[in-house]
Specification:
The protein has one helix and five strands; from the N terminus they run H-E-E-E-E-E. The protein is of the alpha+beta class and about 60 residues long.
Length: about 60
Amino acid sequence: MPTPKKKTSRSRRDMRRSHDAVVAPAMATDKKTGELVRPHRAHKGADGAYYYKGKQISASKS
């Protein structure tokens, strides 16, 4: 198995890990209900219908 010729410096190691940080998902507030929703995604309302940008896009199943 090949082994590295030189030790990886702290700087180079940390630059490689710069994208590994965990970030909280972005959240937006629904215009009608005021609940938190993920942006650019349809979400299910309390009535069972799906909403996108505060507008109903599909009827409830019941």
